[in-house]
C-alpha cells in the first residue's frame, strides 16, 4: 500500500510503472548541505520561535488582559453562605423594683433569666437581665443598650392596677401592676412583647443561609396567620432606605379648592411621627396642589348608584386610579424612595365618590403610597363660606381625618410592626432590628452574587473601586453583626449602630456590584477578536509553524540516523 | 372707566403696577404682514420664597421647584426654539428677544457658587440631567464641551440677595436638538390648568410645531416688591408665528395639496400670464381668521385660579378699523378698542362660558400696520470650501441713525478651531458704497480658547456699530478630525454650530435721541451646519486587515528567504504527499482505463497525460501551503 515512502524520494516512479518515464535518466539530487548552513537555519527558526514565545506572547497577553483587582472571595462566600456570622440579637432587660430588698431583686433577676433563657430552641433573642441598682424616682434615663425596662410596682398601694401591665408610649418601659411579682408572670408579660418580634425576625431569616435549623423549629410552631400577616406587611413595605421623600399632593378634579392648609396639618399629624421615625431614616416633605386632574382613560370611571346616591368606584379601578401619565407625581431627585400621598377632591357632580363594596374612601398602594378621596358634601359644606378664600382653601380641620389616615399609612408603608400597640418606641426598636437584619442579609447575598459573577466571567475587569467597596462593605457588615450581638441597635455619637452599619454595608455592596465599568466589557464579543487577529496571525503563523515542524522533523531524523549509525 | 384704562394697558405694565397674583396668564395676538399671525402666550406663577424653601407648592410646579432646590439654582432660563424670525418683514422681535432662544435648546442659569468650581459643575450637571428628564430633551448632553461662562452677554433678571454675589452663570446650548411635542407636553404639565382650561387649551402640538417660528421659554427668578416677601416667579412663554392659511386648512384633510388650476388667483397683468403660467396675485387686505380655525379649538373655559388676578386674558393688536367679534358662550359681540392705546383690544375670559372664540373677517385696511424696526439685522454664514479649513462671516446691519453698542457672543464647539489673529471687524456705511471699509476696534474682548474634548471656544466682543452702517465680522477656522466613535450616526449631515447671541445694549442715558429704548434687547442668528471630514466607518477593519496582510507578506518573504534552501528546479525532490496523491490518481486512472479498455478494445493512451496532471496538482498543493512565498516556487526545497 505504501510503496513511495522511500528515503529522499529517489526512485518513486515505480508506483505507476516505470514504463511511462524514459528509462536511464536518473533524477538529479541536490548537493548535501554543509552542516553549518543547516545549523544556521535551525538557529534562525529557533530564534524566531524564541522571540514569538518569550516576547510576543507575553506582550500580547499583557496588552489584552483585563485588570482584575483581587477580591476577598472566600470571605464573601462565607457571608453568602451564612458562615461568617452567627446571628443573635441581644435583648438586655433592666429590672426596676422600687422598694425591694437587694437580695430579692437579684433572686428575681436570676429566676427571670433562667426562665427566659430556656425559651425553647427557636429563640433568636439573647435575654440578659440587669437588676436595677437604684430606687430613685422618677426613673433616670435608660442606659445605653437597654431594649426594655420593666418596672415592678409591687410596692405601690394595691388596688390601683392589680394584675395589669401597660407600656409607656414614647419609651420602651413596661409597667407591671402590683399583682405581678412572680418571675413566671413577669416572664409571660415580657414574652408577650418579644414573641411577635422573634417571629418577625425568623420570618426575615427564613429561606436564607443564616436561618439555622434551630430557627426552623420556631417557624414550624408559628401559626399560619402570623406568616400571612407578615407576608402582607412585607409586600407593602418600601425597600429600606436612608432617605424617604414624602410627597403630599392635592389633586382636584376642577379648579376649586386650589389651596390647603397643609403646613398646619403636617405639623399636627405627620411631623411628630416623622420625628419619632428619624432614628430609622431621614424624611423630606414636599407638597403640591394640582388642578384639573382627570381620571386615567384606562379605568372605567365611577358609576352612579341610585340607591345610596353615591358615585361608586369599582374595586378593579383602584389600581389605575392614579393617572400616572398625567398627574405630576414624578419621583424626587436625589437618593431615596418617594412615598406619595394623594388626596383627591372629586368634582361636585361626581360627589360623593366612594369605593364600591366597602364604601371606603381610603386605600393604600403597596410600595407606592396612599390615596384618599375627600368628598366635600355639596353646597352645604363649611367650604361654601362667605369669604372667597374659604371657598378655595381646605382648612386644617377639613384635613384632620385624612392626615390621620396618611400618618397611619406611612407607618405601614415603612413597615412598622403593629405590635406592641402600646409603645411606639418598642415598635420602632423592633423595626430597627428587622431592618438591620434584612439589610445584612441582602448585603450578604449581594456579596455572594458578586463573588459568583467574578468567578463565572473571567473576562470582566475588576477595577480597584470595586475592591475598595467590597472591603468597606465587609468591614461594615462585620460591625453590624457584632452590634446586633451586642445590642447596639441605634446610632450613637461614636458608633453607627447595627442599622447604620448594615446600611453602609448594603450601599457599598450595591456600589461594587453595579460598577458600570465592569458591565461594559462583558459584552465584548469573541468574534471581534477573531476578526482582528486572523488576518495578522494566520499568514504569519503558518510559515512559522511549518518551518518549525520541518526543522524539528529533520532534526529528529538526523538524530535517529546518528543513533542508527553508531 | 378705571377698568377700561386697566384693560388698555399692556400686560407687562399691569403686572408691574398691581401686586403680583399667584398665577396669571395672557395671550397676545398680532397679525403680521403676508398672512402671518404672531401669538405670544405668557403664564406667570409665583410662590413665596419661604414656601419654596420648605417645598410647599401651589401654582409653582413642584417638579421644577425640587430640581431648582436640589441643584442650588438661583435663576434659570430655558429655551426651546425652532425656525427663524423673519425680521425683514415681521419687524422687531417679540418681548425684545428676551424670551427667545437659539435653534434647538438653550439654557443658562445662575447657580450657587459655594464649594468652588467642581461643586458648581456638579450642580450644573445635576440641573441639566434633571431637566432633561423633566422635559424629555437631550439636555443631559450639555457637558463641559457645550458649556460656556459668558461675562457680558447676560445679567440676572431677578433680585438676588446680596446683590447677586455668590452665584455663577453657566450657559449651554444644544443646537442639534429638534424641539417637538414631547417637549410641549411636560411644559403644559407645569401649568396649573394643564392645557385644559384658559388660553393654554389652545396649545396643541400639531399647531405649535407647524409654526414658521416657535420658541418656548421657562424663566425662574426671584422677584421682590417693597414691603412684601420676596417671591420666586416662574414665567413660561410660548411664542409662535403661524402661517394663517396653512393653519386654517381643515383638520380632516391636513395634507397640503396644490390647488386646482381654476382656484389659483393669478396676476393677469403680467406679460407672461397664460393658461399654463400663473404669477400669484398678492393678497389684498387682511385675511379672515378665527382662533378656533387657527388653533383647531376655541379657548375652553378660563383659568382664573388666583385671587387678585383681574387682568385680561387675551389682547389683540390690530388696526383700529378692523372688525373683531368675540363669541363667548352663546353671545356674540363686537370688540372695540378702549382708551388711549388704539391698537390693542383686550378680552377677559368669562368664568361661566365654556368656549370663547375671536373671529376677524376679511377686510381691506388702508392704514399701513404699525411695525417697529428691529434694532439690528444679523446674519452669519460659514465660508470657504474643502474639509480642512473654513471661515466665519457675520454681517451686522444697523438701520438706525444712532450708533449702537452690542455684545456679540459665540460659543463654538471644540472641533471648530478659530484663529483669533484672523479676526477682522470692518464697517462700511450703508448709504454710500464707494467709501472704503474702516476697521472697528472692539471695546472689549473675552476669549476662552477651546480644549480638545473638554471645552468649547467662548468668544465675546463688545462692539459699537456705527449709525446706518454694516459691520462685517470674519475669522478663519480649522476643522478638527474627530475620533471614530465621536461621530453621530448621521455623520455626513454635518455638525450644528450654536447661534451667535447678540445683546443690544441700551444707549447711554446722556444720549440725545429721544425715542430709544431703555432696555436692552437680544437677537440670535440662525444655527449653522458645519461639515466635518467624515471617515468611512468600516475603516478600522479595513486598516487592520490591510496592515496585517502587508506585515504578513513582508514577514513571510523574509522568513522564507532566511529559512529556505535554494536548489535547481530539477533537483527538487518530490514531496511525500505529492507522491502519494500521484499514486492514488494513477491507480484510479488505471482502473478507469482498464474499464474503458474492456468496453472498447484499443482505447489506450490517456494514462500518460494523467500522470503529468497529477504531478502538477501536487505541486499546487505545496505552493499553497507555503503561503506568501509564491515567488520562489519551483526552485525551492524543503
UniProtKB/TrEMBL annotation, chain A:
GO terms for cellular component: GPI-anchor transamidase complex. Belongs to the PIGS family. It comes from Friedmanniomyces endolithicus. The lineage of its organism: Eukaryota, Fungi, Dikarya, Ascomycota, Pezizomycotina. This is GPI transamidase component. Its main location: endoplasmic reticulum. It is a multi-pass membrane protein. It comes from the Eukaryota. Keywords: Endoplasmic reticulum, Glycoprotein, GPI-anchor biosynthesis, Membrane, Transmembrane, Transmembrane helix. GO terms for biological process: attachment of GPI anchor to protein; GPI anchor biosynthetic process. The chain crosses the membrane at residues 44-62. PANTHER family: GPI TRANSAMIDASE COMPONENT PIG-S (PTHR21072). Residues 1-28 are annotated as: Disordered. Pathway: Glycolipid biosynthesis; glycosylphosphatidylinositol-anchor biosynthesis.
UniProtKB/TrEMBL annotation, chain B:
It comes from Friedmanniomyces endolithicus. InterPro entries: PIG-T. This is Subunit of the glycosylphosphatidylinositol transamidase complex-like protein. Pfam families: Gpi16. Residues 1-19 form the signal peptide. Keywords: Membrane, Signal, Transmembrane, Transmembrane helix. It comes from the Eukaryota. The chain crosses the membrane at residues 541-563. GO terms for biological process: attachment of GPI anchor to protein. GO terms for cellular component: GPI-anchor transamidase complex. The gene is GPI16_3.
